């Protein structure tokens, strides 16, 4: 878009403002802005008000046919465009209700055996190794672990509170006894960094949902700091303030890949694989599915039931006649 027409920068600024009003994450903000930009460029830099349902469907079809994106990626692009028209441009057009989301194929999650998990974790070390252990030991999602605050680790009760998880829900999960000592050390390391930041005139962490206005002293309190802080301060793209963010998720992804190769595991492994393995291994150990649902933070037990299909007992626990 031509910045001289006065529409391009203003449009993206308004998209950004609306996303933050609705408390979307910075990752989602970047993704939505990227899709809106691609949509505008694909339509000859025309303003979205000049476009409509036909152009949206053409864009989504082009993503699937030419770029062969996954259904989840196509649906994310659609969500970005619907947010643009509904929340930013304020348009409620009939075609919005007729746009069909791509159907995601039903796939079973990749799950590691307990031996494979032990092998993978043995090939990881340092802070990324500790985060990987935490993911497998608690069932947390990647960003839930990286955004963990000091105040939400209860060493006395061996319990972790996950704040503002998927769907905006809080929940509690277990703190593995084997991780108590390593996490204590990580918290103390974070305390040292925080003191150094305060001495340098910094030390205020980012807080969501305008909590910093409600509790002005909270951003500088140690209780609100990340358990896994980044080693360097950086400028926050939301307001330009210099802060210490949490550990970068890309560094963990690289560490998991290196660990998988060292362990000789011939399966695709990601941070989410450890969450899948956590749930499956609890089912194998005989824990009831409702308990696992609560630990994972699933809204619907049907989501948790997918793990019953990956238990290492054959289809439905049936013994093949070949093995009789």
Automatic annotation (TrEMBL):
The keyword DNA repair does not apply. Residues 107-320 form the Tyr recombinase domain. This is Integron integrase. Keywords: DNA integration, DNA recombination, DNA-binding. Gene3D superfamilies: 1.10.150.130, Intergrase catalytic core (1.10.443.10). Belongs to the 'phage' integrase family. PANTHER family: PHAGE INTEGRASE-RELATED, PROPHAGE INTEGRASE INTD-RELATED. It comes from Luteimonas kalidii. InterPro entries: CB (IPR044068), DNA_brk_join_enz (IPR011010), Integrase-like_cat_sf (IPR013762), Integrase_catalytic (IPR002104), Integrase_integron-type (IPR011946), Integrase_recombinase_N (IPR010998), Integrase_SAM-like_N (IPR004107), Tyrosine_recombinase_XerCD (IPR050090). The keyword Metal-binding does not apply. Residues 10-89 form the Core-binding (CB) domain. Pfam families: Phage_int_SAM_4 (PF13495), Phage_integrase (PF00589).
